[in-house]
Structure to design on (312 residues):
């Protein structure tokens, strides 16, 4: 009960400081984790954090679905929240109108995502990692912060154990194409909130506002499909090998990256990146055994079919 009262107090403070949009998003995550802790008999994490005031006016009108409530939600036994995104097509990479980009973000090309899938509303937290793996490798330790300093192999082990725990085979890392698809959320501008980076601090923890550390998920604004921290906080691991010239030969339908390589793809930028590294088309990479506080993960789920039913 004390946990719920604490959360209600946090919710009230957030509502006064930032309005119902901010408070509702952060409260939903906190309540989900509290419910998971109560159900499992665990000591659910608690942390009150101030939510920064917005830097500008209302976000630009998105070109895709504007309300995440249009998407079906799913919550697993750890309180991880997922929204379902539709199948669809989009233009991947930097456009000819973009003024800043790396050459390996071009050419811009059409990609078809042939099936709907679920995307984690937040990056995986340290508390969630601890429940599955029994350890916490992160540099910035707090249960509500995103897990970081994890290798590709340790993430694969985490996903395998999570699938076993949840009785499914649905959990996995997103592909690079899937990541840019749900990051853009139907938009075509360099940022999902518009052409200018002036309001990036409303949506992302990055070099200008992070104070050189990660932050609890869900405190800043979401993208048009209801996903938080798509930009900044920790850069997100992907399943693809990285290829500098992959865009020149990428298949149109459900591309999965090169068949081999030495580095894995990384997206989203982190708490240490500038505005340039927090764009929708920005591409980065890392060595699979790389351990650093700028790299974490967001999970996706294949939709259940036949006998493979994810728990509800």
């Amino acid at each position: 009960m004390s946990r719920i009262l604490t959360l209600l107090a946090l919710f009230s403070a957030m509502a006064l400081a930032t309005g119902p949009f901010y408070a509702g998003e952060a409260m939903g995550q906190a309540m989900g984790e509290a419910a998971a802790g109560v159900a499992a008999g665990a000591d659910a994490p608690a942390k009150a954090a101030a939510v920064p005031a917005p830097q500008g006016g209302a976000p630009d009108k998105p070109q895709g679905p504007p309300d995440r409530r249009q998407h079906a939600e799913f919550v697993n036994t750890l309180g991880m929240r997922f929204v379902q995104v539709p199948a669809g097509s989009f233009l991947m990479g930097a456009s000819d109108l973009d003024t800043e980009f790396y050459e390996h973000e071009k050419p811009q090309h059409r990609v078809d995502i042939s099936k709907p899938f679920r995307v984690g509303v937040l990056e995986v937290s340290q508390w969630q990692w601890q429940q599955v793996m029994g350890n916490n490798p992160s540099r910035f330790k707090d249960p509500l912060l995103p897990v970081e300093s994890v290798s590709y192999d340790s993430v694969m082990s985490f996903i395998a154990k999570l699938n076993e725990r949840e009785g499914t085979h649905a959990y996995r890392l997103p592909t690079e194409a899937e990541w840019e698809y749900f990051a853009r959320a139907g938009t075509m501008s360099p940022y999902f909130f518009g052409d200018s980076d002036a309001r990036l601090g409303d949506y992302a923890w990055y070099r200008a506002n992070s104070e050189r550390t990660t932050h609890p998920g869900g405190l800043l604004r979401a993208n048009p499909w209801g996903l938080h921290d798509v930009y900044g906080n920790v850069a997100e691991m992907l399943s693809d090998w990285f290829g500098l010239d992959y865009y020149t030969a990428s298949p149109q339908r459900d591309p999965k990256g090169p068949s081999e390589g030495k580095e894995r793809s990384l997206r989203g930028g982190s708490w240490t990146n500038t505005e340039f590294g927090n764009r929708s088309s920005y591409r980065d990479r890392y060595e699979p055994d790389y351990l650093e506080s700028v790299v974490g993960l967001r999970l996706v789920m294949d939709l259940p079919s036949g006998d493979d039913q994810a728990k509800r």
Notes: Confidence is low (pLDDT under 50) at residues 1-70, 306-312. The chain has two domains: 1-53, 68-302.
